[in-house]
């Protein structure tokens, strides 16, 4: 697959965009006219810069409102086009995007549109330029790719072909199977964008909410599958108008974009596998990556803190046992059955407690690491002494380090590198890590969803929004099919997140247990500071559910939250927040699948109140 990207997808100057696209590994770019107009470089300097970076300039765009007009307007449009052809010759670009007319068309007649495009084709031929005619989803008379193709067929000129744009096709619900009926030689260009499902007019949807493949709801592997079967082998270019990407760091967005194409290329290959009609002469080459099975479990969570004592205390209060210090690193392990927390003492004594890494059990750690690196994950260098297990690791977009642990039935090998090999004394009913909430920088949320899906085969669940006193918190659960690994990605309102790196919004680790009342009672005895839950909540709970009065009293007494649905009941409580982290304990009775979403607003409001009170008192505990 020849990869390309429109400069409009990215933030920064044209020079910055070209450098970022080259560094991310794109083969070429589309020059968006606005980027050229505001650039002080001459067209020749832009051409030379791209060539020096190894990028082809694949398309100049957009040329608007050409066809379906009266004779006088047509002459003006041809003059306008000729100036662009001369410019394109200076840039060394041989293909121009011609969008279906949205504004000045007055003649709804395919023969007229075709004749006018033919005249444009004759003019373009003199400059060695090809025209890729694209049906915009909101075109005045032409909004369907098969209609655009019929006009191209009627125009019948070697320099007039079509451009297929997945957004314009899938947003209107047109069946992409029709792509296979277009001769590949007449598909001059292909643009890809994904988008979330929204009830919005198609123009606003397109201009603000396009995302990279894999970050939205469109079936793009199916779309590219039709393209492959058509025999098309030209550039596959990302054209994504997105309000957030235009503000995010250009180099990161370019890597996110390239990751999406690599992932899509592999998905298409899997989609076509075993279909004998898929293989044709000159078939587009598709990526193959080492396969990865979903992780089996969260092996450990690592917390880093300048002062580890408050974290150690919280875990002790929840019934965890210290398994001693690591033989060569400044870390301590605390466990309760399969729940393992590694506490790392940060070098800076002032460093706030925060989640720094997750260990995930995978069937084939080497394959998973290799896959992640091919998807441009940043590897984490490890230092280890002789005889210690080396775990491969990479960084997620939110900065969390992901360690790949070989799945084992009993105690993992790495855990034996800690001081105490004695079994836990009287472990409680916490059984393991149920889920982990990772706060995401607002400008990298879509990237994070694709990252966790593409590198670890976690599947996105429908996203939710939860009200907090400072705005809505968006929550997106990424889950393994088995449910053993659940990551909840949270994007906090920017006001929470002054630094813009997600650090203003606390993360949490939730432990699963089989008897939450027992865990809570032990915690009370050991002096745990629970997140307080207001009485109004319990009165509402009594009204919503027909609860046993004794259970309601226990919930109230222990600051437990409650939810119920068709699958069962959910009981949970939260600790106070230390630095940027708190813990949750949950009990699922027996098959409840959610996370107590109706209770999230209660938690957020209580945490907000405490955070304000503690800040006023100058205490680091929130
Ligand atoms: Mg387009
Ligand atoms: Mg939770």
TrEMBL record:
Cofactors: a divalent metal cation
The keyword Metal-binding appears for this protein: yes
SUPFAM superfamilies: Glyoxalase/Bleomycin resistance protein/Dihydroxybiphenyl dioxygenase, Xylose isomerase-like
Top-level taxon: Bacteria
Gene3D superfamilies tied to this protein: 2,3-Dihydroxybiphenyl 1,2-Dioxygenase, domain 1, Divalent-metal-dependent TIM barrel enzymes
Residues at which Mg(2+) binds: 435, 508, 584
Keyword Lyase listed: yes
GO molecular function, one term: metal ion binding
Listed EC numbers: 4.2.1.118
Matches recorded under PROSITE patterns: VOC
Catalytic activity entry: 3-dehydroshikimate = 3,4-dihydroxybenzoate + H2O
Sorted UniProt keywords: Carbohydrate metabolism, Dioxygenase, Lyase, Metal-binding, Oxidoreductase, Pyruvate
Cited Pfam families: AP_endonuc_2 (PF01261)
Domain VOC per the UniProt entry, residue ranges: 432-576
Residues noted as binding a divalent metal cation in the record, renumbered to the chain: 134, 165, 191, 239
GO BP annotations listed: 3,4-dihydroxybenzoate biosynthetic process
Pathway(s) this gene product operates in, as recorded in its UniProt entry: Aromatic compound metabolism; 3,4-dihydroxybenzoate biosynthesis
Annotated function: Catalyzes the conversion of 3-dehydroshikimate to protocatechuate (3,4-dihydroxybenzoate), a common intermediate of quinate and shikimate degradation pathways.
Family the entry assigns: Belongs to the bacterial two-domain DSD family.
PANTHER family per the UniProt record, alphabetical: HYDROXYPYRUVATE ISOMERASE (PTHR12110), XYLOSE ISOMERASE-LIKE TIM BARREL DOMAIN-CONTAINING PROTEIN (PTHR12110:SF21)
Protein name: 3-dehydroshikimate dehydratase
Species this chain originates from: Arthrobacter saudimassiliensis
């Amino acid at each position: 697959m020849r990869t390309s990207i429109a400069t409009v997808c990215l933030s920064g100057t044209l020079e910055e965009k070209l450098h970022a696209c080259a560094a991310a590994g794109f083969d070429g770019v589309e020059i968006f006219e606005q980027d050229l107009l505001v650039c002080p470089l001459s067209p020749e300097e832009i051409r030379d810069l791209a060539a020096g970076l190894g990028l082809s300039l694949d398309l100049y765009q957009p040329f608007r409102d050409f066809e379906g007009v009266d004779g006088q307007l047509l002459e003006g449009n041809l003059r306008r086009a000729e100036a662009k052809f001369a410019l394109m010759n200076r840039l060394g670009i041989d293909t121009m995007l011609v969008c279906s007319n949205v504004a000045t068309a007055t003649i709804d007649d395919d023969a007229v549109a075709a004749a006018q495009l033919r005249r444009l084709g004759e003019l373009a031929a003199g400059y060695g330029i090809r025209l890729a005619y694209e049906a915009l989803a909101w075109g005045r008379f032409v909004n369907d790719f098969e209609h655009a193709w019929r006009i191209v067929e009627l125009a019948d000129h070697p320099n007039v072909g079509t451009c297929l744009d997945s957004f314009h096709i899938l947003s209107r619900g047109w069946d992409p199977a029709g792509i296979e009926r277009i001769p590949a030689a007449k598909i001059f260009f292909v643009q890809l964008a994904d988008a979330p499902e929204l009830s919005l007019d198609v123009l606003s949807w397109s201009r603000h909410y396009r995302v990279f493949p894999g970050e939205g709801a469109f079936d793009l592997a199916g779309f590219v599958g039709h393209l492959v079967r058509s025999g098309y082998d030209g550039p596959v270019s990302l054209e994504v108008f997105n309000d957030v990407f235009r503000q995010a760091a250009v180099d990161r967005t370019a890597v996110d974009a390239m990751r999406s194409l690599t992932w899509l290329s592999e998905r298409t290959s899997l989609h076509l596998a075993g279909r004998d009609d898929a293989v044709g002469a000159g078939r587009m080459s598709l990526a193959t990556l080492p396969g990865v099975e979903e992780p089996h479990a969260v092996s450990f969570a690592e917390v880093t803190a300048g002062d580890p004592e408050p974290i150690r205390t919280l875990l002790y209060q929840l019934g965890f046992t210290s398994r001693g210090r690591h033989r060569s690193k400044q870390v301590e392990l605390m466990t309760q059955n399969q729940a393992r927390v590694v506490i790392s003492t940060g070098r800076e004594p002032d460093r706030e407690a925060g989640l720094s890494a997750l260990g995930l059990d995978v069937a084939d750690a080497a394959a998973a690491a290799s896959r992640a690196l091919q998807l441009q994950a940043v590897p984490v260098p490890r230092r280890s002494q002789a005889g210690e297990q080396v775990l491969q690791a990479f960084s997620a977009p939110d900065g969390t380090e992901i360690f790949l642990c070989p799945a084992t039935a009993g105690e993992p090998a790495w855990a034996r590198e800690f001081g105490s090999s004695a079994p836990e004394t009287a472990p409680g009913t916490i059984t393991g890590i149920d889920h982990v909430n990772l706060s995401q920088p607002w400008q990298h949320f879509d990237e994070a969803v694709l990252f966790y899906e593409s590198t670890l085969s976690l599947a996105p669940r429908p996203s939710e929004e939860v009200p907090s006193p400072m705005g809505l918190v968006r929550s997106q659960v990424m889950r393994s099919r088995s449910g053993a690994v659940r990551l909840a990605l949270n994007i906090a309102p920017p006001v929470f997140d002054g630094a813009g790196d997600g650090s203003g919004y606390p993360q949490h680790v939730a432990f699963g247990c089989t008897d939450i009342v027992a865990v809570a009672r032990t915690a009370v005895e050991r002096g745990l500071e629970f997140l307080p839950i207001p009485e109004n909540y319990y009165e509402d709970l009594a009204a919503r559910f027909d609860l046993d009065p004794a259970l309601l009293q226990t919930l109230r007494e222990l600051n437990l939250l409650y939810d119920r649905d068709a699958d069962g009941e959910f009981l949970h409580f939260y600790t106070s927040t230390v630095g940027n982290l708190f813990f949750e304990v949950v009990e699922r009775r027996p098959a409840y699948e959610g996370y107590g979403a109706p209770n999230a607003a209660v938690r957020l409001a209580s945490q907000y109140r405490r955070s304000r009170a503690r800040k006023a008192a100058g205490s680091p505990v929130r």
